[in-house]
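Recap from last week: sequence in, structure out.
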Amino acid sequence: MIDARLALALDGGGFVLPDDGAIAVFKPPQDAELSVLPQDRCLIIEGFKPAHDAWCARGFDCVTELNRRVGAAIVCLPRAKAEARALIAEAMEKSEGSLVIDGQKTDGVDSLLREIRKRIDIFGPIAKAHGKLFWCSADSASVFDDWRTGPALTAGGFWTAPGVFSADAIDPASDLLAAALPENLGKEIADFGAGWGFLSAHILTRAEVSAVHLVEAGHMALECARRNVTDPRAVFHWADATTWRPEKKLDAVIMNPPFHTTRAAEPTLGQGFVQAAARALSPSGQLWMVANRHLPYEQTLMSHFANVFEVGGDARFKLLHATRPKHPARP
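Predicted structure tokens:
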């Protein structure tokens, strides 16, 4: 973990914190303690809503993007290599002192270390707990200019950014769901885990729809969705779909729920989406979802809806339709 590697770097490893200025920490693991850093100078950069809120609840200052210079910057590598490179370029530009890079071997820290060594002198690395930490001076920001990127218009005509789900092309599962949706979905619709807005844009081709609520926990994904979905009936919510509540009950929920935050499948994520959909829907509301065929959602669906149907799919994905949500009885 970063805590152990950072402690070694500070305790005789050669890394020294600046005497003043904020210490920006990009995307630290939610279970990191960061106790070796002065909390009153820590600035967490985190755009994933549940993690953002968790860091705020622990008393840390937390922002979705860094818009000022800092005394030092620490990048905790995400899984997506393009996103990791973009974060490193941003951190190098904003730091007035050192840039620290930390990551697990499974997140590609070794290959990034080799790449960075070809561009700039590095210190360390410190290896521990199946990961590495190393650092460099941030006085040559232009060395990573070719890694700098943000929201961009793809050849397919939509805006995405590094780290956003299905950034390079339309997700085949979402495409399958879009093609299967009926023409009449009702007036008030929500797209849970809306991503960069593909499904919402498809739903808004229906004239009878009065509002589509794009509920997305990723701040950058939602910023892309704002560019892709410009219909005035679109309502954007930076929120965790598992806890979001609409102001009034919905006619339909559409979703292609995420099923992992690490490399391992976590079906409880999608199950949480199903439970939230049942709470959000009117008694006559309907849920339409797509999922990888091996994921066990049917039992959760049957626990929260009176009727559950598999309405199509292929060898990889299944299309599920659920009606008559079971709302808990009032006490």
